[in-house]
Amino acid sequence: MATRWGIISAGIISTDFVSAMQVLPKEEHQVVAVAARSLQDARNFATKFGIESAYGSYSEVAKDPKVDVVYIGTIQTYHLPVATEMMKAGKAVLCEKPLCMNVRETRQLIQTAQECGVFFMEAVWSRFFPAYKELSRRLKDGEIGEVVQVIASFGQDLPHVERLKRPETGGGVTLDIGIYPVQLTTLAMGGDKPLKVFAGGHLNKNGVDETISASLVYSDGRVASVSASMRANLPSEAFIVGTKGTIKVHYPMWSPEVIEGPWGKSTHPLPKNSFKFNLINSGGLMYQAVEVRRCLKEGLLESPGMSHAESITLAEVMEQIRTQVGTVYPQDSM
């Protein structure tokens, strides 16, 4: 049977996610419902993609018996309540990153998933790109020896994205963009937590971080340097340096088609898609949908490619970075 999807939010990322899914076999993936705060927005979305049910409230998706798994594409301030409601209704959940606003919320949401006994995954889509899978394989095979250092950046000039500018909408560069170099570092470090995090940066006039740079110190002589900006276009590449060689993840490091190492250059082009995307290489969003279906078929409650433990590690590192820079959210005092 096909995995039947419900979509929460009819915004840009949800549009790209469902557009990306159009290349997947219909007998394996079907989007059967969409919900938005505006019923008309949901109806427009449903018409565009040929979706059967359109709802003007998220709760209606939780109650829809046709929905197996829910994709949550709201801004991060809504992730905790919406994902909680869906899981308590027995739905599997793929929730956009960052999973939550802070470590406390992240732990709470993962605990809810475990108590409800449903599949739950943070949508760190990078992890399921063919280029990332090859990267993981070559690291595990020891092709560059022992990892010594990671250098990664992600920066874009984003003056038009209003939600990034304010704490009440979960703004700040660390949660939205910085998560990508952090997750790549965590992958290269085998999921280990850093022993120390040293971060600096600058806040905008509303008190959220707009530029950050951080040094992460790991056990066994390993270190990482990560940087992120929503004021400038950084190289947005990554280098994983080992005792026997270096792997380069080409731009865009969060959704790459090319990696390079001692073996040469490997290219993994995205599948052709007739839909127009809002964000670069969003066609690759479909790889995480494939992973969710695989996990559901195998009876898994979390993905080994993006585990609950790693989501907690990401949240811990990002909280240390943004609080050292000075970003505080209303959720931090709850």
Architecture blueprint of SSEs:
Elements: E1 3-8, H1 12-21, E2 29-35, H2 39-49, E3 53-55, H3 59-63, E4 69-72, H4 79-88, E5 92-96, H5 103-116, E6 120-123, H6 130-140, E7 147-155, H7 173-188, E8 196-203, E9 209-217, E10 223-229, E11 238-242, E12 245-249, E13 258-261, E14 264-267, H8 286-297, H9 308-325
Helix pairs in contact: 4-5, 5-9, 7-9
Structural overview:
This protein is α/β, with parallel strands linked by helices. Helix content is 32%, strand content 24%. The protein is built from 9 helices and 14 strands. Strands 8-9-10-7-11-12-13-14 form an 8-stranded mixed beta sheet, with helices on one face. A 6-stranded parallel beta sheet has the order 3-2-1-4-5-6, sandwiched between helices. Strand 5, helix 5 and strand 6 (120-123) form a beta-alpha-beta unit. The radius of gyration is 19 Å and the shape is globular.
What are the salient characteristics of this protein?
14 strands; globular; alpha/beta; 334 residues; 8-stranded mixed beta sheet
Structural class: alpha/beta
Gyration radius (Cα, Å) is: 19 Å
Major β-sheet strand ordering: 8-9-10-7-11-12-13-14
Tell me the distance between the termini: 42 Å
Q: Mean pLDDT, as a whole number?
A: 97
> What percentage of residues falls in helices of 4 or more residues?
25-40%
* Tally of separate helices: 9
